[in-house]
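FAQ: What does the model actually see?

It sees only this:
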Amino acid sequence: MENIKSKSIGNQLITAIHRQKPGKLFFSNDFMHIGSAEAVNMAFSRLAKAKELERLGKGIYLYPKQDPELGTLYPSLETVAEAIAEKEKVKIKPTGASALNKLGLSTQVPMKVTYLTDGSPRKIKVGNGTITFKRVPPKKLAAKGQLTFLAIQALLEMGKPAVNDAVIKRLTEVLKKEGSETILKDAKLAPGWIASIFYSIAKKMNHD
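And it is asked to produce this:
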């Protein structure tokens, strides 16, 4: 009887999966209404073994998109990270090389990205890439401006010795979208040397 029920759950999952386009993420706890947690998780595990799904992390599965030449086509690390954050109703903010790329300070698309979060810490493997969620105190996520947060993280990644006139020019262009008031508020959350850069940029903006 249990085996028949398990097959029924598996069939329901297959039907739900095939209604979606390849490349979609599935979360096992979205399907607890069709059976017990153990039965649903077992059905997902079987689908992963059958290559219908690819397990990215605990309770997180990808309906893989296949290319005849390239094999599995994975969504971007950012897409996966944002889907997880939306599902779990948590904040995530990119750091390091990802922040540099988003601000146009680097053209390299990182294959290992770290997000600061108020949610659960973990690592998710997506193809050859890795997403690390690092839990931090609320103060670390408190920057008012998205771009000022990215600027802080990018500068931390670069280090003070690597900051030159070209970097300051680029940050000034980007941070104009935030406005001097936001820059000055978020400067208080940054290390001293980064705060000095923010004050300088805000001062220049106010004089222009």
